[in-house]
Write a structure and sequence with these properties.
This protein has five helices and four strands, in the order αβαββαααβ. By secondary structure, it is an alpha+beta fold. A four-stranded mixed sheet has the order 1-4-3-2. It comes from Musa troglodytarum (fe'i banana).
């Protein structure tokens, strides 16, 4: 007859092995995601896919052509969150205008005052300090060569 402690050892070993396997998968997934989100060039079309509605994909937002992974703030940037309108796009103007609909959700700063533009720059600094930089958005601020800033179309 088996001793009462034997099933406990098997259960403990099984749980330990399962825990190790889960930790290993999480560790591997972390490197996969970081490699996948290595800073790179993004198109507007690509960025729209990362708006928090697709389970398993990170949540990205753009500001002044810089793209950030804001997944750690998914309660704010995901569906139903107060800042969801920023996810999956560059809505630089809305950071200071407060217009979170239609024309307000644009990357254009045309017509903003110097102080408002400085405020948008400060918001970009906020994201640079608190979130993962995921790359640059090809368009108004960066061309397809990545390192060439485009200022004349701001």
């Amino acid at each position: 007859m088996a001793s009462p402690s034997r099933p406990t050892r098997v259960s403990s070993s099984l749980l330990l092995g399962l825990g190790f396997l889960i930790a290993l998968i999480a560790f591997a997934l972390q490197f996969y995601i970081r490699k996948y989100l290595r800073p790179r060039l993004w198109t507007v079309e690509e960025l729209t896919l990362y708006n928090g509605t697709e389970v398993g994909l990170p949540i990205l937002l753009g500001i002044l052509g810089s793209v950030f992974d804001v997944t750690k703030g998914k309660t704010h940037y995901g569906p139903g969150g107060g800042y969801h309108h920023f996810a999956g796009r560059d809505a630089s103007r809305a950071f200071v205008s407060g217009n979170f609909t239609g024309d307000g959700l644009t990357d254009s700063l045309h017509g903003l005052s110097t102080m408002e533009v400085k405020s948008v720059v400060d918001w970009r600094k906020f994201y640079m300090e608190r979130y993962i930089f995921a790359g640059k958005l090809v368009g108004r601020y960066y061309d397809s060569q990545e390192s060439h800033k485009i200022f004349e179309r701001c």
